[in-house]
Specification:
A hairpin with a 7-residue loop joins β8 and β9. By secondary structure, this protein is of the alpha/beta class. The chain is globular and about 75 Å long. It is built from 10 helices and 18 strands. Helices cover 25% and strands 27% of the residues.
């Protein structure tokens, strides 16, 4: 099975601190890197991962607040300095291209690659990316500006071939793709060999949901039902629930409720307000509702 990992580059909220960087993550799958949000300083955090910049396939921007996208011009300039030639796709609110094009035209005039903006509707739940391994869907969120989460769903892998059975029945190589896809095999004498005798089931496909920034939003629950790993913002403690509602953010307990009702496997919380010197307060409140909760932290790598 291919590696599927989430690398946390930044998990703080809008006010930078010496403890947390601004929002950015990398999803690693099948040799590709997918950057999720790109707050200021994201490229420096990326450098610390020792991942390959040129393996960034696509960038997904949740919304147009600076702590989620101010890192884009610098990153794009760095990719050019590193000799990138492959197109870079940026999935975002349609207004991002209007904001970015003048900056790219001024500061990045000699790019060796094309920057392709692929707009999506922030209030829709729809497929916005797919390849042979992955599908990405938008998740409408509740925030002061249009905000979108992302659901990353691995495509179901094909069954594993049992080589000894292939040899026993002397099955030609040309038949293998169909057997992997679920077909039975018919021998030259007409015997039907069931697919279950020739293969073993592949592992279940994995899924990851990224939900930041958002107020408490029960409409998310059916969209992220049963995901293996959920990242949900937990900007505030329960004592600030009223302020969370005003700013359209979530408390840690509210994040726990979403995770519990959606029946997810595990949850990471992040986007911490700078007012908390110790996020264990938030962790305790989330775990009281959903025990399989963990604090996101810069440098953390989580297997999905």
């Amino acid at each position: 099975m291919e590696t599927m990992k989430v690398h946390i580059l930044g998990c703080g909220s809008a006010l930078p601190t010496t403890r947390h960087s601004l929002s950015a993550q990398v999803l690693e799958l099948s040799g590709k890197l997918f950057l999720i949000d790109c707050g200021e300083g994201a490229q420096l955090q990326f450098r610390r991962t020792h991942l390959n910049f040129n393996k960034i396939s696509d960038i997904f921007i949740s919304h147009l607040h600076g702590d989620h996208c101010f890192g884009l011009p610098g990153l794009i300039s760095t990719l050019s300095l590193l000799g990138r030639t492959a197109p870079l796709r940026i999935h975002a609110h349609p207004d991002l291209e209007k904001l970015m094009r003048p900056q790219l035209d001024y500061f990045c005039r000699e790019l060796g690659f094309e920057v392709v903006f692929q707009p999506f509707a922030p209030n829709a739940h729809e497929l916005i990316y797919e390849d042979r391994s992955l599908q990405v869907y938008t998740l409408p969120l509740i925030h002061r500006v249009p905000s979108t989460g992302f659901l990353f769903k691995e495509r179901p892998p094909q069954a594993h071939i049992l080589k000894d059975m292939i040899a026993f029945y002397e099955i030609p190589l040309r038949e293998i793709p169909a057997i992997k896809a679920g077909a039975d095999y018919v021998t030259p004498s007409g015997e039907v060999v069931p697919n279950a005798r020739l293969t073993r089931p592949a592992a279940a496909p994995r899924s990851y949901a990224y939900c930041s920034d958002t107020g408490y939003n029960e409409a998310l629950i059916p969209l992220i039902k049963g995901v293996d790993l959920l990242y949900h913002e937990a900007t505030f403690a329960q004592s600030e629930e009223e302020w969370a509602a005003t700013t359209q953010h979530s408390t840690a307990a509210q994040a726990g409720r979403i995770a519990a009702q959606a029946g997810v496997g595990r949850m990471l919380i992040g986007h911490y307000s700078a007012r908390y010197p110790d996020e264990n307060l938030l962790l305790g409140q989330a775990r009281a509702v959903f025990p399989e909760t963990w604090l996101a932290d810069e440098g953390m790598v989580v297997e999905v």
